[in-house]
Write a structure and sequence with these properties.
97 residues, alpha+beta, Arc Repressor Mutant, subunit A, two-stranded antiparallel sheet, 39% helix, 16% strand, globular
Length: 97
């Protein structure tokens, strides 16, 4: 199994993202919230209803923001704050931090 390890340089820490957080992290590329929500739903449908996907996305985005992994810019787009170090290693994934 692959994992995603993220380093946050402003508040030095390493986080191991689970597959859901990794997907959301990858989707946070500067797109609008509406586009982020659609892209996430497209990735998890039919396993989640639109409401379940939205609730899950809100929770993951909040967690990634709280940890300093992503941030919202002034026009409510989601983006990574700066280039990050991401490693893909073999092993079990979990939410770290």
């Amino acid at each position: 199994m692959e994992v995603c390890i993220v380093f946050t340089p402003d508040n030095p820490n390493l986080f191991t993202l689970n597959s859901t957080a990794w997907l959301v992290f990858d989707l946070c590329d500067g797109r609008s919230w509406r586009r982020l929500e659609k892209a996430y739903y497209d990735a998890v449908e039919p396993l989640r209803s639109p409401e379940e996907a939205r609730d899950e996305l809100i929770g993951v985005v909040s967690d990634l923001e709280r940890k300093g992994i992503i941030e919202r810019d002034r026009v409510a787009r989601m983006s990574k704050p700066r280039p990050t170090t991401r490693g893909r290693n073999k092993g079990a994934g979990s939410n770290g931090g």
